[in-house]
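Title: Request for sanity check on Replication protein prediction

Description:
We are preparing a figure and want to confirm that the structure record we downloaded matches what your pipeline produces today. Could someone re-run it with the sequence below and paste the raw structure tokens into this thread? We only need the token string, no images.
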Amino acid sequence: MYDQNSIKQSGSEKERGRMNEELRRGPTPELNALPTCKLLTDGSGKVWAVDENGKPLGNTTDNSAIRTQQGFQAIKERFKLLDSARKILDGERTQHCFYNRVDKNDGVGVTFNKFRNKANYTNVMRCANAWGCPVCAAIISEHRKCEVKDAMDWWKKQGGSVLLLTLTVPHYSDTDIKQLKKDLKKAYGKFFKGVRASKDMFERWQIKHYISCFEITHGLNGFHPHYHVLLFVPYSLGKQSLPGIKQDMYKVWKDCCLKSGLDEPNEKHGLDLQAGNDAANYVAKWGLEHEMTKGHIKKGKENSRTPFDILRSYSASENEADANLFKLYYFAFKGTRQLNWSKGLKKLVSKAEEKTDQEIVDDTDNVAELLFKLDIEMWHAVRKQKKQGELLVAVAEDQTLKKPMELIRQCLADQGLLQQNYRVQI
């Protein structure tokens, strides 16, 4: 939960400076010291919050232009997809994510980080499920993206460059996905740590470090698991040098696949190699660090869908085939580590302790200010109406609190709970 007495430092030095300035202006009040206030309505649909003396609460500015509507729409979509994931993943922690409370005797706080124009909740469970939860996956991947970018920036300062390697294997619509995953992992292990030929190859091309990301899509030939790997080399590489290196790596990859019980990979499609900055068309608009961490956001190519594309399809139509496909994917890959760093690389890049996925999703309130607190009945109304994402967007769009208060009022009304002087802590 949000700790009013400890403000965790994160982000850039510039942001830390702004945070420290805020701290010098005075502490944030304790949660239990917040005044009890009321939601008032004039009966015409307008609603506003006042303190015990009747004074309107909320800031006088509206920051709705700071973040794009596209960004706000993404938040709403993730929560909509999370609701669909709850229906599909029966018995999984994702069913409780941003739905049930950590402390069942307490309500839910709504916080706002004005430096990032981002709202969040306190006292709600977070599943930290990068494979099945669109909301937690976005939080985790954003953090991992920063870690990957830091590694790339650090290496470039050493005078090196980064190559993007993609490894895949043949697969078919009737391939056993769990067996394919097992055999692919074995081939990957041989390529990076196992056979003598791979060790010689690493020495030959002076590959000093690497970061790999495991990703999966689904198409006409079934599930398509593959690895994206950043290779850290101490030299710059022109396009003319890539074919020779690629052919050398392919020979090793083919041998690793065959020794792992896989079919022989096609030379054209089984291995791809691109120079870091020239990979823009493949990496799309985000840069290499996004290609490595944003698998949940990327939309699949023609005749190919990411797992969350499948979830989007189910969300739109509740097609049972999509539900079964998503479950098949999820239970085959849940618990698999998405991002792997070569030994020692993380310590070279940063002295900070590595965070688990759970620590990342729980550590999202940082310097956020507690704006108001929903009591238990209010939270039940918001979640029953599936408005968790919309409420966060309303707060980010309008810190005068008019939009979020109106949304809460509507949720209460739809649940038959609206009272003219409904009480909420602010």
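Thanks, this matches our download. The longest helix spans residues 134-157.
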